[in-house]
Write a structure and sequence with these properties.
The chain is mostly beta strands. It contains two helices and 13 strands, in the order E-E-H-E-E-E-E-H-E-E-E-E-E-E-E. It is globular, with a radius of gyration of 16 Å. The protein starts with a strand and ends with a strand. 27% of the residues are buried.
Length: 177
């Protein structure tokens, strides 16, 4: 669901979401989140966790950032930078590996393949269902492609994927399962 667009006092378009309903809000082309200073996990449910689900760091290790995750300015007219960073999600209802109760989720970084070189690469891909982390895939430059896949038991919910580029920060994409 895309937030409504409104102009601020300077005439700049901004995107607004109801914080109480969605647990986050959008500002310009970024989303607010709580970022772990140890492992870069981003909490998108409206608060910092008591303990980081990735590295175990305490709540004090989290920093609230107004622009923690980047989003496109216009999802119908992506820039080349956005085309390389916004995750592309494919949900496959019939799993070839686990025949019952499994949905495959395939993710690649961008419509245009993101580079995976020592100087510019995707560090990790985080997967969330209903704003709660379910998995992180770590990527190594030069040895892996900028993609990942999961076999999910969940029958429904909102799937969110956040990738972290070493140069251009975190980018998000969401879809319904």
């Amino acid at each position: 669901m895309r937030p409504s667009r409104k102009k601020n006092k300077d005439g700049i378009l901004t995107k607004i979401k109801d914080f109480r309903k969605y647990g986050s809000y959008w500002k310009g082309d970024a989303m607010k989140g709580y970022v772990c200073k140890i492992c870069s996990f981003i909490s998108i449910n409206g608060s910092a966790p008591e303990k980081c689900p990735v590295c175990g760091a305490p709540k004090a290790a989290f920093e609230e950032k107004e622009e923690a995750v980047k989003t496109p300015n216009d999802s119908n007219n992506l820039t080349e930078l956005e085309k390389k960073h916004i995750p592309v999600i494919t949900v496959v209802r019939k799993c070839g590996l686990i025949p019952e109760g499994c949905t495959d989720v395939h993710v690649k970084m961008g419509e245009i393949q993101h580079p995976m070189e020592a100087k510019h690469y995707i560090m990790h891909i985080d997967f969330y269902i209903d704003k709660e982390l379910i998995s992180r895939i770590m990527l190594t430059p030069d040895k892996l492609n900028p993609a990942g896949a999961l076999h999910i038991k969940a029958k429904g919910g909102r799937l969110t994927v956040i990738e972290l580029c070493n140069l251009h920060g975190a980018w998000i994409k969401e879809t319904d399962l």
